[in-house]
Please model this.
Amino acid sequence: MTSSLTPTSQEHPPLRTEDETVFESSLESFPASDPPSWTAGRDLTPEQLDKLSRHTEAPFVSDAKQTVANRARIVIVGGGFGGLSVARYLSGVDADITLIDRHNYHLFQPLLYQVATGALSPANISAPLRAVLKRRKNTTVLLGEVTHINAKSKFVRLANGKECSFDYLVLAAGADHNYFGHQEWREHAPGLKTIEDAIEIRRRVLSIFEAAELEEDREKQRKLLRFVVIGGGSTGVELAGALGEIAQQTLKGNFRRINPSSSEILIIEGGPQILPGYSSKLVSKAKQRLARHNVTVKENWLVKEIHADYLIVEHGGALHKIESGCILWAAGVKPSSLGALVANEVGAAVDRSGKVVVGEDLSIPTARNIFVIGDLASREQDGKQIQAVAPAAIQEGKYVARTLRAKISGLPDASIEPFRYHDRGAMTIIARSYAVVQIRKVSFAGFLAWLLWLWVHIVYLAQFSNRLLVMFQWGWSYFTHNRSARIITSSGAGREGGI
Ligand SMILES: Cc1cc2nc3c(=O)[nH]c(=O)nc-3n(C[C@H](O)[C@H](O)[C@H](O)COP(=O)(O)OP(=O)(O)OC[C@H]3O[C@@H](n4cnc5c(N)ncnc54)[C@H](O)[C@@H]3O)c2cc1C
Model:
Protein backbone atom coordinates (compact mmCIF):
# COMPACT_ATOMS: atom_id res chain seq x y z
CA MET A 1 0.00 0.00 0.00
CA THR A 2 1.16 3.51 -0.62
CA SER A 3 1.77 6.00 2.13
CA SER A 4 -1.10 8.09 0.79
CA LEU A 5 -3.42 5.80 2.70
CA THR A 6 -2.37 7.21 6.04
CA PRO A 7 -4.74 9.82 7.47
CA THR A 8 -4.09 13.29 6.19
CA SER A 9 -6.88 15.14 7.87
CA GLN A 10 -8.96 15.10 11.02
CA GLU A 11 -12.10 15.50 8.93
CA HIS A 12 -14.18 12.34 8.60
CA PRO A 13 -16.81 11.35 6.14
CA PRO A 14 -20.33 11.10 7.55
CA LEU A 15 -20.12 7.59 8.95
CA ARG A 16 -23.42 7.61 10.78
CA THR A 17 -26.97 8.44 10.14
CA GLU A 18 -28.46 11.55 11.61
CA ASP A 19 -30.51 9.39 13.94
CA GLU A 20 -27.42 7.83 15.42
CA THR A 21 -25.92 11.23 16.16
CA VAL A 22 -29.15 12.29 17.85
CA PHE A 23 -29.04 9.04 19.78
CA GLU A 24 -25.55 9.78 20.99
CA SER A 25 -26.33 13.27 22.11
CA SER A 26 -29.33 11.92 24.00
CA LEU A 27 -26.91 9.98 26.16
CA GLU A 28 -25.29 13.05 27.52
CA SER A 29 -28.18 13.26 29.95
CA PHE A 30 -27.08 9.97 31.55
CA PRO A 31 -25.41 10.39 34.92
CA ALA A 32 -21.61 9.87 35.03
CA SER A 33 -21.99 6.39 36.48
CA ASP A 34 -24.09 5.25 33.56
CA PRO A 35 -23.06 2.20 31.61
CA PRO A 36 -20.16 2.16 29.14
CA SER A 37 -20.56 1.93 25.38
CA TRP A 38 -21.42 -1.76 25.29
CA THR A 39 -23.85 -2.03 28.18
CA ALA A 40 -26.93 -4.14 27.47
CA GLY A 41 -30.31 -2.60 27.22
CA ARG A 42 -31.52 -4.73 30.09
CA ASP A 43 -29.40 -2.66 32.51
CA LEU A 44 -31.33 0.51 31.65
CA THR A 45 -34.52 1.83 33.15
CA PRO A 46 -37.69 1.55 31.02
CA GLU A 47 -37.65 5.35 30.53
CA GLN A 48 -34.09 5.27 29.27
CA LEU A 49 -34.86 2.37 26.94
CA ASP A 50 -37.90 4.16 25.61
CA LYS A 51 -35.83 7.26 24.95
CA LEU A 52 -33.22 5.23 23.13
CA SER A 53 -35.65 3.20 21.07
CA ARG A 54 -36.89 6.37 19.44
CA HIS A 55 -33.47 6.73 17.84
CA THR A 56 -32.14 3.23 17.30
CA GLU A 57 -33.32 -0.27 16.54
CA ALA A 58 -31.18 -1.80 19.29
CA PRO A 59 -30.75 -0.60 22.84
CA PHE A 60 -27.18 0.61 22.50
CA VAL A 61 -25.55 2.93 24.91
CA SER A 62 -22.51 4.96 23.90
CA ASP A 63 -20.29 6.43 26.53
CA ALA A 64 -20.36 10.17 26.00
CA LYS A 65 -17.07 10.46 27.89
CA GLN A 66 -15.21 8.12 25.53
CA THR A 67 -16.95 8.45 22.21
CA VAL A 68 -16.32 11.60 20.22
CA ALA A 69 -19.33 12.40 18.01
CA ASN A 70 -18.79 11.35 14.39
CA ARG A 71 -15.79 9.26 15.30
CA ALA A 72 -15.83 5.92 13.53
CA ARG A 73 -16.51 2.88 15.72
CA ILE A 74 -14.50 -0.15 14.70
CA VAL A 75 -15.24 -3.49 16.32
CA ILE A 76 -12.74 -6.33 15.92
CA VAL A 77 -13.90 -9.82 16.87
CA GLY A 78 -10.94 -12.02 17.78
CA GLY A 79 -7.56 -11.15 19.26
CA GLY A 80 -5.62 -13.82 17.37
CA PHE A 81 -3.04 -13.15 14.67
CA GLY A 82 -5.48 -11.34 12.37
CA GLY A 83 -7.47 -9.30 14.90
CA LEU A 84 -4.43 -8.24 16.90
CA SER A 85 -2.70 -7.13 13.72
CA VAL A 86 -5.68 -4.89 12.84
CA ALA A 87 -5.68 -3.33 16.32
CA ARG A 88 -1.92 -2.78 16.27
CA TYR A 89 -1.87 -1.11 12.87
CA LEU A 90 -4.81 1.12 13.79
CA SER A 91 -2.71 2.70 16.47
CA GLY A 92 -3.30 6.43 16.67
CA VAL A 93 -6.15 6.45 14.15
CA ASP A 94 -8.98 8.81 15.02
CA ALA A 95 -11.57 6.12 15.76
CA ASP A 96 -12.96 4.18 18.71
CA ILE A 97 -11.68 0.63 18.41
CA THR A 98 -13.10 -2.24 20.42
CA LEU A 99 -11.41 -5.62 20.33
CA ILE A 100 -13.57 -8.47 21.66
CA ASP A 101 -12.21 -11.92 22.42
CA ARG A 102 -13.58 -14.83 24.43
CA HIS A 103 -10.14 -15.19 26.01
CA ASN A 104 -8.21 -12.40 27.69
CA TYR A 105 -5.02 -13.39 25.89
CA HIS A 106 -3.49 -13.70 22.47
CA LEU A 107 -2.35 -17.26 21.85
CA PHE A 108 0.68 -18.15 19.77
CA GLN A 109 -0.77 -21.36 18.30
CA PRO A 110 2.33 -22.51 16.36
CA LEU A 111 3.98 -23.32 19.71
CA LEU A 112 0.96 -25.05 21.28
CA TYR A 113 2.47 -28.46 20.58
CA GLN A 114 5.38 -27.50 22.86
CA VAL A 115 2.92 -26.93 25.72
CA ALA A 116 1.23 -30.23 24.86
CA THR A 117 4.58 -31.98 25.13
CA GLY A 118 5.81 -30.24 28.26
CA ALA A 119 8.55 -28.09 26.69
CA LEU A 120 6.85 -24.78 27.44
CA SER A 121 4.24 -23.52 29.89
CA PRO A 122 0.97 -21.91 28.74
CA ALA A 123 2.10 -18.46 29.90
CA ASN A 124 5.16 -18.69 27.64
CA ILE A 125 3.04 -18.68 24.50
CA SER A 126 0.23 -16.35 25.45
CA ALA A 127 0.11 -12.64 26.15
CA PRO A 128 -2.72 -10.71 27.85
CA LEU A 129 -4.48 -8.63 25.19
CA ARG A 130 -4.79 -5.70 27.57
CA ALA A 131 -1.06 -5.66 28.12
CA VAL A 132 -0.28 -5.93 24.41
CA LEU A 133 -2.63 -3.05 23.58
CA LYS A 134 -2.22 -0.92 26.69
CA ARG A 135 -0.51 1.93 24.82
CA ARG A 136 -3.25 2.11 22.17
CA LYS A 137 -5.38 4.72 23.87
CA ASN A 138 -8.06 4.53 21.17
CA THR A 139 -8.53 0.79 21.79
CA THR A 140 -10.77 -0.92 24.33
CA VAL A 141 -10.42 -4.63 25.01
CA LEU A 142 -13.53 -6.57 26.01
CA LEU A 143 -13.68 -10.13 27.25
CA GLY A 144 -16.71 -11.92 25.84
CA GLU A 145 -18.02 -14.36 23.27
CA VAL A 146 -19.76 -12.82 20.26
CA THR A 147 -22.89 -14.84 19.51
CA HIS A 148 -24.90 -12.57 17.27
CA ILE A 149 -24.21 -10.04 14.53
CA ASN A 150 -26.79 -7.56 13.32
CA ALA A 151 -25.43 -6.08 10.10
CA LYS A 152 -28.40 -3.81 9.44
CA SER A 153 -28.45 -2.15 12.85
CA LYS A 154 -24.67 -2.53 13.09
CA PHE A 155 -24.10 -4.19 16.41
CA VAL A 156 -22.70 -7.42 17.79
CA ARG A 157 -24.13 -9.18 20.82
CA LEU A 158 -22.14 -11.13 23.38
CA ALA A 159 -23.17 -14.33 25.13
CA ASN A 160 -24.07 -12.35 28.24
CA GLY A 161 -26.53 -10.20 26.26
CA LYS A 162 -24.34 -7.09 26.09
CA GLU A 163 -24.18 -5.31 22.77
CA CYS A 164 -21.55 -3.27 21.02
CA SER A 165 -22.25 -1.04 18.05
CA PHE A 166 -20.00 -0.50 15.06
CA ASP A 167 -19.55 1.40 11.85
CA TYR A 168 -16.96 -1.09 10.66
CA LEU A 169 -16.71 -4.70 11.78
CA VAL A 170 -13.65 -6.92 11.38
CA LEU A 171 -14.29 -10.63 11.90
CA ALA A 172 -11.13 -12.52 12.82
CA ALA A 173 -12.60 -15.36 14.87
CA GLY A 174 -10.33 -18.08 13.45
CA ALA A 175 -11.17 -21.76 13.36
CA ASP A 176 -12.15 -24.72 15.52
CA HIS A 177 -11.45 -28.47 15.40
CA ASN A 178 -12.90 -30.35 12.49
CA TYR A 179 -13.90 -33.93 13.22
CA PHE A 180 -15.64 -34.21 9.84
CA GLY A 181 -19.06 -34.87 11.34
CA HIS A 182 -17.77 -37.26 14.04
CA GLN A 183 -17.90 -34.99 17.07
CA GLU A 184 -17.91 -38.11 19.28
CA TRP A 185 -14.26 -38.70 18.30
CA ARG A 186 -13.22 -35.58 20.18
CA GLU A 187 -13.47 -37.32 23.54
CA HIS A 188 -11.10 -40.10 22.50
CA ALA A 189 -8.77 -38.07 20.31
CA PRO A 190 -8.34 -34.52 21.60
CA GLY A 191 -7.25 -31.90 19.10
CA LEU A 192 -4.81 -29.05 19.58
CA LYS A 193 -6.27 -25.57 19.27
CA THR A 194 -6.44 -24.01 22.71
CA ILE A 195 -4.38 -23.92 25.89
CA GLU A 196 -6.94 -26.23 27.50
CA ASP A 197 -6.41 -28.72 24.64
CA ALA A 198 -2.64 -28.56 25.09
CA ILE A 199 -2.88 -29.17 28.84
CA GLU A 200 -5.25 -32.09 28.26
CA ILE A 201 -2.90 -33.64 25.69
CA ARG A 202 0.06 -33.17 28.05
CA ARG A 203 -1.93 -34.87 30.80
CA ARG A 204 -2.81 -37.83 28.58
CA VAL A 205 0.73 -38.24 27.25
CA LEU A 206 2.41 -38.14 30.66
CA SER A 207 -0.32 -40.24 32.32
CA ILE A 208 0.07 -43.03 29.81
CA PHE A 209 3.71 -43.56 30.80
CA GLU A 210 2.57 -43.74 34.43
CA ALA A 211 -0.15 -46.25 33.49
CA ALA A 212 2.38 -48.37 31.61
CA GLU A 213 4.71 -48.36 34.63
CA LEU A 214 1.83 -49.75 36.73
CA GLU A 215 0.92 -52.38 34.12
CA GLU A 216 2.47 -55.81 34.61
CA ASP A 217 1.33 -57.44 31.39
CA ARG A 218 4.06 -56.84 28.75
CA GLU A 219 1.66 -56.93 25.81
CA LYS A 220 -0.66 -54.37 27.45
CA GLN A 221 2.35 -52.21 28.26
CA ARG A 222 3.34 -52.27 24.61
CA LYS A 223 -0.14 -51.21 23.48
CA LEU A 224 -0.28 -48.45 26.07
CA LEU A 225 2.99 -47.05 24.78
CA ARG A 226 1.71 -46.86 21.21
CA PHE A 227 0.84 -43.25 20.42
CA VAL A 228 -1.27 -42.42 17.39
CA VAL A 229 -1.30 -38.94 15.85
CA ILE A 230 -4.05 -38.53 13.25
CA GLY A 231 -3.09 -36.02 10.59
CA GLY A 232 0.29 -35.52 8.95
CA GLY A 233 0.31 -31.75 8.48
CA SER A 234 2.82 -29.56 10.31
CA THR A 235 1.04 -29.86 13.65
CA GLY A 236 0.82 -33.66 13.49
CA VAL A 237 4.45 -34.03 12.46
CA GLU A 238 5.71 -31.61 15.14
CA LEU A 239 3.62 -33.36 17.78
CA ALA A 240 4.84 -36.81 16.75
CA GLY A 241 8.48 -35.70 16.63
CA ALA A 242 8.19 -34.18 20.11
CA LEU A 243 6.58 -37.39 21.45
CA GLY A 244 9.52 -39.33 20.07
CA GLU A 245 11.94 -37.03 21.87
CA ILE A 246 10.05 -37.32 25.15
CA ALA A 247 10.13 -41.10 24.93
CA GLN A 248 13.77 -41.39 23.90
CA GLN A 249 15.44 -38.56 25.74
CA THR A 250 13.38 -36.66 28.30
CA LEU A 251 12.10 -39.73 30.16
CA LYS A 252 15.30 -41.72 29.86
CA GLY A 253 16.14 -43.29 33.22
CA ASN A 254 12.94 -41.99 34.86
CA PHE A 255 11.09 -45.32 35.04
CA ARG A 256 11.98 -48.71 36.50
CA ARG A 257 9.51 -51.13 34.93
CA ILE A 258 9.16 -49.72 31.44
CA ASN A 259 11.60 -48.46 28.89
CA PRO A 260 9.98 -45.28 27.50
CA SER A 261 12.21 -45.35 24.42
CA SER A 262 10.43 -48.52 23.30
CA SER A 263 7.33 -46.37 22.66
CA GLU A 264 5.94 -46.49 19.17
CA ILE A 265 4.50 -43.40 17.48
CA LEU A 266 2.30 -43.59 14.40
CA ILE A 267 1.27 -40.75 12.14
CA ILE A 268 -1.92 -41.68 10.30
CA GLU A 269 -2.38 -39.54 7.21
CA GLY A 270 -5.43 -39.89 4.97
CA GLY A 271 -3.79 -38.20 1.98
CA PRO A 272 -0.97 -39.49 -0.22
CA GLN A 273 1.77 -37.54 1.60
CA ILE A 274 2.51 -35.99 4.97
CA LEU A 275 3.49 -32.29 4.99
CA PRO A 276 1.42 -31.34 1.94
CA GLY A 277 2.96 -28.44 0.07
CA TYR A 278 6.54 -29.53 0.78
CA SER A 279 8.69 -31.08 -1.96
CA SER A 280 8.80 -34.88 -1.99
CA LYS A 281 12.55 -34.69 -1.31
CA LEU A 282 11.95 -32.76 1.92
CA VAL A 283 9.12 -35.10 2.91
CA SER A 284 11.35 -38.09 2.52
CA LYS A 285 14.07 -36.42 4.63
CA ALA A 286 11.46 -35.62 7.27
CA LYS A 287 10.30 -39.25 7.34
CA GLN A 288 13.85 -40.53 7.73
CA ARG A 289 14.43 -38.19 10.65
CA LEU A 290 11.11 -39.14 12.24
CA ALA A 291 12.02 -42.82 11.96
CA ARG A 292 15.07 -42.14 14.18
CA HIS A 293 12.57 -41.21 16.90
CA ASN A 294 10.44 -44.33 16.44
CA VAL A 295 7.84 -42.41 14.44
CA THR A 296 6.27 -44.42 11.62
CA VAL A 297 4.32 -42.63 8.91
CA LYS A 298 1.23 -44.29 7.39
CA GLU A 299 0.02 -42.48 4.29
CA ASN A 300 -3.29 -43.12 2.52
CA TRP A 301 -4.67 -44.55 5.77
CA LEU A 302 -8.21 -43.33 6.37
CA VAL A 303 -9.63 -43.22 9.89
CA LYS A 304 -13.05 -44.87 10.07
CA GLU A 305 -13.69 -45.18 13.80
CA ILE A 306 -12.09 -43.91 16.98
CA HIS A 307 -12.70 -45.56 20.35
CA ALA A 308 -11.22 -45.11 23.80
CA ASP A 309 -8.29 -47.43 23.23
CA TYR A 310 -8.27 -48.33 19.56
CA LEU A 311 -9.09 -47.00 16.12
CA ILE A 312 -10.18 -48.56 12.87
CA VAL A 313 -8.44 -47.42 9.72
CA GLU A 314 -8.89 -48.31 6.10
CA HIS A 315 -5.97 -48.89 3.81
CA GLY A 316 -6.01 -50.45 0.35
CA GLY A 317 -9.62 -51.54 0.79
CA ALA A 318 -8.93 -53.44 4.03
CA LEU A 319 -9.84 -52.43 7.57
CA HIS A 320 -7.21 -52.50 10.33
CA LYS A 321 -7.55 -52.21 14.08
CA ILE A 322 -4.81 -50.23 15.87
CA GLU A 323 -4.72 -50.41 19.65
CA SER A 324 -3.29 -47.37 21.35
CA GLY A 325 -2.96 -45.81 24.78
CA CYS A 326 -3.05 -42.27 23.46
CA ILE A 327 -4.79 -41.06 20.30
CA LEU A 328 -4.35 -37.43 19.26
CA TRP A 329 -6.15 -35.46 16.56
CA ALA A 330 -4.29 -33.12 14.23
CA ALA A 331 -6.33 -33.68 11.09
CA GLY A 332 -7.84 -30.32 10.44
CA VAL A 333 -9.84 -27.33 11.49
CA LYS A 334 -13.04 -25.69 10.32
CA PRO A 335 -13.90 -21.98 10.36
CA SER A 336 -15.59 -20.44 13.39
CA SER A 337 -19.39 -20.60 13.36
CA LEU A 338 -19.43 -16.79 13.22
CA GLY A 339 -18.71 -17.21 9.50
CA ALA A 340 -22.03 -18.92 8.81
CA LEU A 341 -23.74 -16.47 11.11
CA VAL A 342 -22.57 -13.37 9.25
CA ALA A 343 -23.08 -15.05 5.87
CA ASN A 344 -26.75 -15.71 6.75
CA GLU A 345 -27.14 -12.21 8.01
CA VAL A 346 -25.88 -10.42 4.88
CA GLY A 347 -26.48 -13.07 2.23
CA ALA A 348 -22.77 -13.67 1.68
CA ALA A 349 -21.31 -16.72 0.01
CA VAL A 350 -19.38 -19.35 1.95
CA ASP A 351 -16.99 -21.85 0.38
CA ARG A 352 -17.14 -25.64 0.83
CA SER A 353 -15.32 -25.51 4.15
CA GLY A 354 -17.62 -22.78 5.52
CA LYS A 355 -15.25 -19.82 5.14
CA VAL A 356 -16.78 -16.50 4.15
CA VAL A 357 -15.96 -15.49 0.59
CA VAL A 358 -14.52 -11.97 0.64
CA GLY A 359 -13.76 -9.47 -2.10
CA GLU A 360 -10.36 -8.19 -3.10
CA ASP A 361 -10.39 -5.64 -0.27
CA LEU A 362 -11.30 -8.45 2.19
CA SER A 363 -14.76 -7.02 2.83
CA ILE A 364 -17.97 -8.96 2.23
CA PRO A 365 -19.30 -7.93 -1.20
CA THR A 366 -22.84 -7.60 0.18
CA ALA A 367 -21.74 -5.69 3.32
CA ARG A 368 -18.77 -3.50 2.49
CA ASN A 369 -18.33 -2.29 6.09
CA ILE A 370 -17.73 -5.86 7.30
CA PHE A 371 -14.28 -7.36 6.77
CA VAL A 372 -13.39 -11.01 7.29
CA ILE A 373 -9.75 -12.07 7.69
CA GLY A 374 -7.54 -14.97 8.72
CA ASP A 375 -8.74 -18.55 8.99
CA LEU A 376 -12.36 -17.41 8.62
CA ALA A 377 -11.90 -15.82 5.18
CA SER A 378 -11.96 -17.51 1.80
CA ARG A 379 -10.04 -15.72 -0.91
CA GLU A 380 -8.18 -16.90 -3.98
CA GLN A 381 -5.01 -15.42 -5.37
CA ASP A 382 -3.52 -16.51 -8.70
CA GLY A 383 -6.06 -19.33 -8.85
CA LYS A 384 -5.09 -20.72 -5.44
CA GLN A 385 -6.79 -20.42 -2.08
CA ILE A 386 -4.81 -18.24 0.37
CA GLN A 387 -3.60 -20.58 3.09
CA ALA A 388 -4.93 -20.56 6.64
CA VAL A 389 -1.61 -19.64 8.25
CA ALA A 390 -0.47 -16.99 10.70
CA PRO A 391 1.41 -14.79 8.18
CA ALA A 392 -1.70 -14.59 5.97
CA ALA A 393 -3.84 -13.50 8.94
CA ILE A 394 -1.23 -10.92 9.99
CA GLN A 395 -0.88 -9.47 6.48
CA GLU A 396 -4.65 -9.35 6.06
CA GLY A 397 -5.01 -7.58 9.41
CA LYS A 398 -2.43 -5.01 8.44
CA TYR A 399 -4.13 -4.45 5.10
CA VAL A 400 -7.58 -3.98 6.66
CA ALA A 401 -6.13 -1.49 9.17
CA ARG A 402 -4.70 0.55 6.28
CA THR A 403 -7.98 0.34 4.40
CA LEU A 404 -9.88 1.58 7.44
CA ARG A 405 -7.43 4.44 7.88
CA ALA A 406 -8.03 5.40 4.27
CA LYS A 407 -11.80 5.22 4.63
CA ILE A 408 -11.77 7.22 7.84
CA SER A 409 -9.56 9.83 6.20
CA GLY A 410 -12.16 10.19 3.48
CA LEU A 411 -10.07 8.72 0.68
CA PRO A 412 -12.17 7.25 -2.14
CA ASP A 413 -12.49 3.46 -2.28
CA ALA A 414 -10.83 3.55 -5.70
CA SER A 415 -7.55 4.58 -4.05
CA ILE A 416 -7.47 1.33 -2.07
CA GLU A 417 -5.40 -1.32 -3.81
CA PRO A 418 -6.54 -4.95 -3.67
CA PHE A 419 -5.00 -7.19 -1.03
CA ARG A 420 -2.03 -9.32 -2.10
CA TYR A 421 -0.64 -12.07 0.06
CA HIS A 422 3.14 -12.47 0.10
CA ASP A 423 3.87 -16.11 0.77
CA ARG A 424 7.18 -16.29 2.61
CA GLY A 425 7.31 -20.07 2.71
CA ALA A 426 6.70 -22.80 5.23
CA MET A 427 8.74 -24.52 7.90
CA THR A 428 8.20 -27.47 10.22
CA ILE A 429 10.36 -28.65 13.08
CA ILE A 430 10.90 -32.40 13.03
CA ALA A 431 13.00 -32.88 16.13
CA ARG A 432 15.81 -31.31 18.12
CA SER A 433 18.27 -29.63 15.74
CA TYR A 434 16.29 -30.63 12.67
CA ALA A 435 13.63 -28.79 10.65
CA VAL A 436 12.48 -28.59 7.05
CA VAL A 437 12.05 -25.27 5.24
CA GLN A 438 10.38 -24.63 1.89
CA ILE A 439 10.61 -21.10 0.49
CA ARG A 440 9.07 -21.21 -2.98
CA LYS A 441 11.39 -23.48 -5.01
CA VAL A 442 14.19 -23.36 -2.40
CA SER A 443 14.08 -26.12 0.17
CA PHE A 444 16.49 -27.27 2.83
CA ALA A 445 16.51 -29.46 5.92
CA GLY A 446 18.70 -29.85 8.98
CA PHE A 447 20.38 -27.67 11.58
CA LEU A 448 20.26 -24.38 9.61
CA ALA A 449 16.57 -24.90 8.93
CA TRP A 450 16.10 -25.53 12.66
CA LEU A 451 17.90 -22.28 13.56
CA LEU A 452 15.72 -20.39 11.08
CA TRP A 453 12.62 -21.98 12.62
CA LEU A 454 13.73 -20.88 16.11
CA TRP A 455 14.47 -17.34 14.96
CA VAL A 456 11.16 -16.87 13.12
CA HIS A 457 9.12 -18.15 16.07
CA ILE A 458 10.96 -15.95 18.54
CA VAL A 459 10.49 -12.88 16.32
CA TYR A 460 6.75 -13.50 15.99
CA LEU A 461 6.08 -14.11 19.68
CA ALA A 462 3.81 -11.34 20.90
CA GLN A 463 5.66 -9.91 23.87
CA PHE A 464 9.26 -9.25 24.76
CA SER A 465 8.99 -11.05 28.12
CA ASN A 466 7.66 -14.17 26.33
CA ARG A 467 10.60 -14.11 23.95
CA LEU A 468 13.11 -14.08 26.80
CA LEU A 469 11.30 -16.84 28.67
CA VAL A 470 10.99 -19.05 25.60
CA MET A 471 14.63 -18.52 24.61
CA PHE A 472 15.68 -19.47 28.13
CA GLN A 473 13.47 -22.60 28.14
CA TRP A 474 14.73 -23.68 24.72
CA GLY A 475 18.34 -23.14 25.72
CA TRP A 476 17.79 -25.15 28.90
CA SER A 477 16.04 -28.00 27.05
CA TYR A 478 18.68 -28.06 24.34
CA PHE A 479 21.54 -28.67 26.73
CA THR A 480 19.74 -30.84 29.29
CA HIS A 481 17.18 -32.70 27.08
CA ASN A 482 14.75 -31.82 29.84
CA ARG A 483 11.21 -30.45 29.52
CA SER A 484 10.37 -28.10 32.32
CA ALA A 485 6.56 -28.32 32.17
CA ARG A 486 6.20 -32.05 32.86
CA ILE A 487 3.54 -31.91 35.51
CA ILE A 488 0.27 -33.80 35.26
CA THR A 489 -2.59 -31.45 36.10
CA SER A 490 -6.38 -32.00 36.17
CA SER A 491 -7.98 -35.40 36.04
CA GLY A 492 -10.03 -35.58 32.88
CA ALA A 493 -11.45 -38.76 31.44
CA GLY A 494 -8.16 -40.27 30.39
CA ARG A 495 -7.23 -43.93 30.22
CA GLU A 496 -4.96 -44.15 33.19
CA GLY A 497 -6.69 -47.45 33.94
CA GLY A 498 -4.93 -49.11 31.03
CA ILE A 499 -5.98 -50.78 27.84
C1 LIG B 1 -1.67 -26.26 16.72
C2 LIG B 1 -1.54 -25.24 15.63
C3 LIG B 1 -0.30 -25.01 15.06
C4 LIG B 1 -0.15 -24.07 14.05
N1 LIG B 1 1.09 -23.85 13.53
C5 LIG B 1 1.25 -22.89 12.60
C6 LIG B 1 2.54 -22.60 12.10
O1 LIG B 1 3.54 -23.24 12.47
N2 LIG B 1 2.66 -21.60 11.19
C7 LIG B 1 1.57 -20.87 10.77
O2 LIG B 1 1.74 -19.95 9.97
N3 LIG B 1 0.34 -21.14 11.20
C8 LIG B 1 0.15 -22.12 12.12
N4 LIG B 1 -1.11 -22.40 12.58
C9 LIG B 1 -2.26 -21.68 12.01
C10 LIG B 1 -2.39 -20.28 12.61
O3 LIG B 1 -2.32 -20.36 14.00
C11 LIG B 1 -3.71 -19.69 12.14
O4 LIG B 1 -3.70 -19.63 10.74
C12 LIG B 1 -3.89 -18.30 12.71
O5 LIG B 1 -3.97 -18.36 14.12
C13 LIG B 1 -5.15 -17.66 12.15
O6 LIG B 1 -5.32 -16.40 12.72
P1 LIG B 1 -6.78 -15.82 13.00
O7 LIG B 1 -6.59 -14.45 13.52
O8 LIG B 1 -7.64 -16.05 11.81
O9 LIG B 1 -7.38 -16.78 14.12
P2 LIG B 1 -6.82 -17.09 15.60
O10 LIG B 1 -5.39 -16.74 15.73
O11 LIG B 1 -7.21 -18.51 15.84
O12 LIG B 1 -7.66 -16.13 16.51
C14 LIG B 1 -9.04 -16.21 16.64
C15 LIG B 1 -9.43 -15.49 17.91
O13 LIG B 1 -10.82 -15.30 17.92
C16 LIG B 1 -11.33 -15.57 19.19
N5 LIG B 1 -12.73 -15.95 19.00
C17 LIG B 1 -13.21 -16.98 18.27
N6 LIG B 1 -14.55 -16.98 18.28
C18 LIG B 1 -14.92 -15.92 19.03
C19 LIG B 1 -16.18 -15.39 19.42
N7 LIG B 1 -17.33 -15.96 19.01
N8 LIG B 1 -16.20 -14.30 20.21
C20 LIG B 1 -15.04 -13.73 20.64
N9 LIG B 1 -13.84 -14.19 20.30
C21 LIG B 1 -13.77 -15.26 19.50
C22 LIG B 1 -10.44 -16.69 19.71
O14 LIG B 1 -10.45 -16.73 21.12
C23 LIG B 1 -9.09 -16.28 19.15
O15 LIG B 1 -8.37 -15.47 20.05
C24 LIG B 1 -1.29 -23.34 13.60
C25 LIG B 1 -2.54 -23.57 14.18
C26 LIG B 1 -2.66 -24.51 15.19
C27 LIG B 1 -4.01 -24.74 15.81
Q: What stands out?
A: The longest strand covers residues 95-101. The pocket of flavin-adenine dinucleotide is lined by residues 77-83, 100-103, 109-110, 112-113, 145-146, 172-174, 192-193, 234-235, 336, 338, 374-376, 388-391, 393 (CB under 6 Å). Confidence is low (pLDDT under 50) at residues 1-66, 493-499.
